[in-house]
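Morning!

This is the sequence you dropped in the shared folder:
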Amino acid sequence: MPDRIHNFSAGPATLPEPVLRKAQEAIWNVAGSGIGIMEHSHRGKVFDRIIAEAEQACRSLAGIPDDYRVLFLQGGASLQFAMVPMNLLGADRTADYLLTGVWSQKAVKEAKAIGKIHIAATSEATNFDRIPKPQEIRYSSSPAYVHITTNNTIYGTQWRTEPSVPSGVPLIADTSSDMYSRPLDIRKYGIVYAGAQKNLGPSGVVLVIIRNGLVEAGAKTLPTMLQYRTHAAENSLYNTPPTFGIYVMGEVFKWIQSQGGLNAMAEHNETKARLLYDYLDSSEFFRGTAQPDSRSLMNVCFRAPSEELEAKFISEATKLGLDGLKGHRSVGGMRASIYNACSLQSVQALVSFMKEFERSNRAAAARS
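The structure's back. Tokens below.
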């Protein structure tokens, strides 16, 4: 078995190898301090510099304006499912949600415990195989906010552009699985949040980018840790943050900069996805599950002619160092997660294996 294999896991997912190498050193001795990053006080000058550099790189990549705060939080995107309505949804208001999969359903469940929810659009009738079309969206009369999940890891669909929302209504986006995979026009959003463990860093850190006007929107009677103002006022240092995760996230931001920024990252991701989708479209054996105009550039979901052949495919791929290809348990099939740090060479290796597997199993497919 080679030292490193091809990692197609949906998350925690592959990280850039230069970042991993630097993190190895930083665990032992970060910034020449003689102390490892996981041992440093979050109140010390070394970590002050680390978190400041991470925020600056985050801002620079997406051109985040000064009237937005960058927060490094904990609790996963799942905690944001609750924090958003806690802070933005008053008792007499309604929030609009666009349903495109399991994670948006989970966000709705949390919001329903806080206030009134309106489903403005959903693709559940076709098992979330597509993104709702603009003409299908029906907003409530005066929503407190509109919430979307930009990329759907389980079903392999992705919003290619943001939906138009009513004037003055903040758009809230869970971007956990495509954050910083492409350019981001932050002015179109009130809040963007993402779990780090797919494109940004290790698990345990949540990036929240929030417009200043929404920071103070929550009631001051909320638990202290659930108010955005708490974390904004203390620059994400109200309590001990996940220092190692923030360090790695900062290094990932710098790596993206070294690759040419978000435009270059988008081109890289489109090239990888096109290679895999072009093969799926030409194959008589495999088939993609998402409708073509809704296909994700991050998670490519596909099926084989039978579940038996799918199990064989996953087993043989794993033995050859192509790991993490089993689809989510709720939908089955296969899934190749090809986030930012996934190389073109990894996708080429996958397509080569798929071609050989198809050639070797045509007879078995004919019998299934």
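Headline: The chain has two domains: 17-258, 261-367.

More detail when I'm at my desk.
O.
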